[in-house]
Design a protein that fits this description.
Chain lengths: 453, 469
């Protein structure tokens, strides 16, 4: 993401608009291409050299803030590492010790007892079994600007191929290799990410966000939860007006903020809202309105309105509620049709608002006699997400909830604490009769208790 | 009723409607209060009608479950056996008498950190120390390590500057504290805020708000803010419990020093390059009517450099010129001479930027501390300087606030910024009394006929006028 100083926006009387760029504009495409090339050419070089090259770059016609913003996003795709034969701190300690016994160390010796620094370096180099140059360069090889660019996007510096990968972290939405395994950093990729990042940067000072979505509820609320936002949810019709019940809802409105927002407008959750924003373009239709604290107006607590919707042309790099999920769901639905059972599998598109948690079951399984059970499939996701999901399932504490969990998940049945018997483990696909069996056991009469709001 | 710490707030589960300081949260259908009211709510629970002490609270209400508090109690004894000065002892007592809450106002260099060490030992609970800068965080870390590390199995924790290590005594910056306080606000019973006059800001004031710490200590030399916002500190940390003005301490703990200014010429090549780059910058500025010596004039210029390619070029030119002046070849020759003269002394070399500090470190093989130096290595280098294992030190840091930097008797300023405050404090560092040595000596090496000359001039005026005020 961008740092706050790299945000670009226009402020009117009551609103703020990020200055998105036209990704087809030739000047931006050239700037982006030039930057990508600089990064590629600096593979194996020091961070300092890379940054100097970017700093000295003067691109006519392109606002330098855009250049810096693009460079920041590219830097997020980089990995820098210390490259030295001996721990630099060890080299330094040895050097200072030897030096301290031999002061004064000077550039132009005049007296017999003056020492020249090269003598110190070669003494320590010999002691450590490294070359004089390695000793001199290694001394501060661990400084940020001396670290080497070993990876840029999917490209790894030849010299360090096969270096250990322990530093790579897997995050659901981060800039880890994982998310971009198949991505090549291209001009289009960069400019698209830049516009999204500009919109995110406006949210750093946001105090409250209101969203309306008409599809992909499960995905959207997974991300609300993932980023620790609190919510109030209201069912809405296709025009966005609130309606009394989820039965007649076409979509949902949610007001998002955080725990302390109860007491005062807080920008503490702005960063979470910024992190959440890329979940919205995963919907076909969405609207977003945020209140942005305006420090410059002088009047304390005044906010500006920031609005975006599906027509703004933003696109997301987050994953939608796993494609794996939808595959499994589709197959299950197809198999169900061929089976001979009174139980019916119906799409459940309800958002069950359980106060602090949201439940988004995939299906309901209904019997003509009125019995009903809610069915949630836990698909493949990262361990962090899974943790939250399992906790959510435990917290739900509802009798008529059954769960199918992929064995491909890295979790054991122990995680379900007393709900094991209503969990169906599966490998590649779910068997209809297994589900029916569970439904017979756990279904209750009528609809689930009313949703709390 | 159950008390839980939730994302920087207190969730009051199954609380009666009479619970004070709380608001109804319809999102979760429970009462919720700011974390800072933890102590008040405990007091209320202990005795809903009367004020009671903290320690009685949990015992008195039977059906009350406190899952909010996640900090521990200790018996800390600072391992440095220094007698507190009278005013430090008085300040500590005043703070104790105010239920271990409130701020202490003491002048720069009067041992605020030492006071904090006493307060931590006195409170005997897990402590979070919040400071404005990474420099200060490092200094506090060194001091607290000195005082307590033997009693802390995991050492003194650091949150910020790339470190994320929380222990029973942890130091952090305002920025990191603001970012993480909702996660760790339940882990500390004492909150110490250094330079507390920076705290009243919409962001930073959430640090005390999201902390349950029943004990709080603010420290500063300049409590009052021009905008009057220091008034909010009372609500956040407690009132001012002790105040000692500069005058009352002057002369007692400050010492004399002499300053020597050394000018160096640029070499022919440097002069040529300097004039060219400076010319590009000057031409641009002159043709655009900025009043650069005014604050907003320079801001105006910077703003322009972001969209005007020529302005961008002018900024680069200015930076190049500054670099030439800062790293002038002959400065190193002069430094050479000084090091020959003073190699037997304890010398600190100040530079205004990291790059030059590292250059000098490599050129003269002297240990160097910048804001990039990791906290534990910094602590180690200072310790070795203190013990005499190292007799020289290069630093680009503003060694603020008279904390832990061992006394040196020679200071060499190779370049500096025009900030008055910074300069005065750098002097203060060297001025500290050092045994029976002769008066401390400060050298300032400046490139002649460059922007530095102006800066140095301005700086000296700043110090003079400070001294007169």
């Amino acid at each position: 993401m961008l740092t706050a100083d790299l945000a670009r926006s226009r402020t009117d009387e009551n609103s703020i608009t990020p200055l998105l760029i036209d990704t087809d504009e030739q000047q931006y495409r050239e700037t982006a291409a030039e930057l990508i090339q600089i990064f590629e050419e600096h593979l194996g070089e020091s961070r300092g050299e890379l940054e100097d090259t970017i700093d000295q770059l003067t691109v006519s016609d392109t606002d330098y803030k855009i250049v810096q913003g693009l460079a920041k996003l590219l830097k997020d795709e980089c990995e820098f590492e210390t490259v030295a034969p001996v721990d630099p701190r060890k080299i330094r300690q040895e050097l200072f010790e030897v030096a301290n016994r031999n002061h004064p160390i000077v550039r132009q010796p005049t007296l017999g007892e003056d020492t020249q620094s090269v003598w110190i370096y070669s003494t320590v180099a010999d002691r450590l079994g490294i070359s004089l140059e390695e000793c001199y360069r290694g001394m501060y090889a661990d400084l940020e600007e001396n670290k080497r660019l070993v990876r840029f996007g999917h490209r790894v510096s030849d010299k360090y191929e096969g270096a250990d990968e322990s530093s790579t972290t897997t995050r659901l939405t981060g800039d880890s290799e994982e998310s971009y395994a198949e991505d090549t950093i291209t001009v289009d990729w960069l400019l698209t990410r830049y516009n999204l990042a500009l919109a995110q940067a406006e949210l750093y000072d946001a105090t409250e966000m209101r969203i309306r979505v008409w599809d992909s509820f499960a995905t959207v609320f997974s991300y609300v939860k993932l980023f620790g936002l609190m919510h109030r949810i209201y069912p809405i019709d296709s025009d966005g007006n609130r309606v009394p019940s989820t039965d007649v809802a076409d979509g949902y409105e949610a007001i998002l903020d955080g725990a302390a927002s109860l007491f005062s407008k807080s920008r503490k959750y702005g960063i979470r809202m910024a992190n959440f924003l890329p979940a919205l373009p995963l919907c076909d239709r969405w609207e977003m309105e945020a209140d942005i604290l305006d420090d410059e107006s002088g009047s304390a607590g005044r906010t500006l309105s920031f609005e975006l919707d599906s027509s703004s042309g933003l696109s997301s790099h987050y994953s939608a509620q796993g494609e794996f999920d939808s595959d499994v769901e589709r197959t299950l639905a197809q198999k169900w049709e061929r089976m001979n059972t009174d139980w019916k599998l119906v799409r459940e598109d309800d958002v069950l608002d359980l106060g602090a948690e949201v439940m988004l079951p995939d299906f309901a399984i209904e019997h003509p006699d009125g019995r009903r059970v809610v069915f949630e499939i836990v698909g493949f996701w990262t361990p962090e997400y899974l943790d939250k999901k399992l906790a959510k399932i435990r917290d739900a504490d509802r009798d008529n909830l059954i769960v199918a969990v992929s064995e491909r998940l890295d979790c054991s049945s122990d995680d379900f604490e007393g709900m094991d018997d209503r969990v169906l483990w599966f490998k590649s696909g779910i068997h209809v009769y297994d589900v029916v069996e569970l439904a017979e056991e756990y279904a209750v009469d009528g609809r689930a208790p009313d949703h709390r709001h | 009723m159950r008390l839980a710490f939730d994302d920087g707030t207190l969730l009051l589960e199954d609380a009666p409607d009479t619970v004070p300081y709380a608001e109804w949260d319809d999102r979760v259908e429970e009462y919720r209060a700011r974390a800072q009211h933890y102590r008040d709510i405990c007091d209320w629970l202990a005795d809903p009608d009367e004020q009671a002490t903290l320690t009685q609270s949990t015992a008195t209400i039977a059906e009350f479950e406190d899952d909010a508090r996640a900090y521990s109690e200790f018996h800390f004894t600072p391992s440095v056996a220094i007698e507190p000065r009278d005013y430090q002892q008085e300040a500590l007592s005043a703070w104790q008498d105010n239920d271990r809450q409130g701020s202490v106002v003491l002048p720069t260099g009067s041992g605020k950190t030492f006071l904090a060490v006493q307060a931590i030992a006195d409170a005997g609970v897990s402590t979070l120390v919040v400071v404005p800068t990474i420099d200060l965080m490092n200094q506090w870390h060194a001091t607290l390590t000195n005082a307590f590390s033997e009693q802390l199995p995991d050492g003194v924790g650091v949150l910020g500057g790339g470190s994320h290590n929380i222990t029973n005594i942890t130091v952090t910056t305002y920025d990191s504290a603001y970012r993480y306080i909702n996660e760790y606000g339940d882990k500390f019973g004492l909150l110490v805020v250094d330079e507390v006059h920076h705290l009243p800001a919409p962001t930073y004031q959430q640090i005390p708000e999201m902390t349950i710490s029943p004990y709080r200590l603010g420290l500063t030399a300049t409590y009052e803010r021009a905008d009057g916002k220091h008034k909010t500190l009372k609500e956040l940390l407690g009132t001012v419990v002790y105040r000692e003005e500069v005058d009352e301490l002057a002369g007692e703990y400050l010492s004399e020093y002499e300053t020597i200014h050394l000018g160096v010429e640029l070499t022919g090549d440097e002069r040529e390059q300097y004039d060219e780059e400076y010319g590009i910058y000057r031409d641009y500025v002159d043709s655009h009517d900025f009043d650069l010596w005014k604050e907003n004039g320079y801001a105006e210029f910077l703003k322009r450099t972001s969209y005007d390619p020529q302005g961008r070029r002018a900024l680069i030119a200015k930076q190049r010129a500054e670099t030439i002046a800062r790293t002038a070849e002959k400065k190193l020759d002069t430094l050479d001479t000084l090091l020959k003269r003073h190699y037997d002394d304890r010398t600190i070399i100040f530079t205004a930027n990291n790059e030059f500090a590292y250059d000098i470190s490599q050129e003269f093989v002297v240990p160097c501390i910048t804001h990039q130096t990791e906290t534990d290595e910094r602590t180690e280098i200072l310790e070795r300087f203190r013990t005499g294992e190292y007799s020289m030190l290069a630093t680009s840091q503003v060694l603020d606030e008279g904390i832990d930097v061992p006394a040196a008797n020679v200071g060499i300023i190779l370049s500096g910024s025009a900030s008055k405050r910074q300069y005065a404090q750098r002097l203060g560092r060297i001025l500290r009394p050092t045994d029976d040595r002769q008066p401390a000596r400060l050298y300032e090496i400046i490139a002649e006929d460059t922007m530095e000359t102006y800066v140095s001039e301005q700086r000296r005026q700043g110090v003079t006028s400070d001294a007169n005020s």
